[in-house]
Specification:
The chain has 5 helices and 7 strands. By secondary structure, the protein is of the alpha/beta class.
Length: 161
């Protein structure tokens, strides 16, 4: 079995004001979801060789301060010694930034989509999104269609959906 890392994507400390204006519950939802992921870290750590946070320019939630944080994933130095590892992702937001990170690595590093896996029940959609809507009109269609989703059962295994 190859080594694998888990990347928690964009666990924002604070949401963008324009998003909060449109979705007033977004900040409390993000806080709750960050807490949910954080609470599971001790159970997730045995499943992965490394766990990191990827931010896209928004300061991450302080719950994840103990984890190594990188900006973006594309041509990051983090991947230099991970050329034979598999990438697992979760966090924010399914169909958007999570899948954009996959596209970055595929385009900039030549990785195959088969090396990426998403833990769906620890990945959250942006309010108003649906999978069909994302496939129909967002830049992440290839990543969505070519990446496997998994469900983590909170015991110690991941099962393909």
């Amino acid at each position: 079995m190859s080594k694998r890392f888990l990347a928690i994507v964009d666990p924002w400390r604070e949401c963008q004001p324009q998003d909060i204006e449109k979705y007033p519950h977004l900040q409390s939802d993000v806080n709750f979801q960050c807490q949910l992921i954080h609470n599971q870290l001790t159970r997730l750590k045995p499943l992965f060789d490394d766990i990191i946070v990827i931010d896209s320019g928004i300061i991450p939630n302080p719950l994840f301060a103990e984890l190594y944080t990188i900006r973006g994933l594309g041509k990051s130095k983090y991947l230099e010694d991970k050329q034979d590892w598999d990438a697992w992702l979760c966090g924010f937001h399914y169909g958007r930034c999570i899948h954009l990170k996959i596209n970055e690595v595929v385009e900039k590093n030549g990785w195959d989509y088969s090396r990426f896996h998403i833990i769906q029940n620890l990945s959250f959609m942006f309010p108003g999104d649906t999978k069909n809507r994302i496939i129909g009109g967002y830049r992440t269609k290839d990543a969505l269609l070519n990446t496997k989703d998994y469900y983590w059962d909170y015991v110690g295994s991941l099962s393909e959906l």
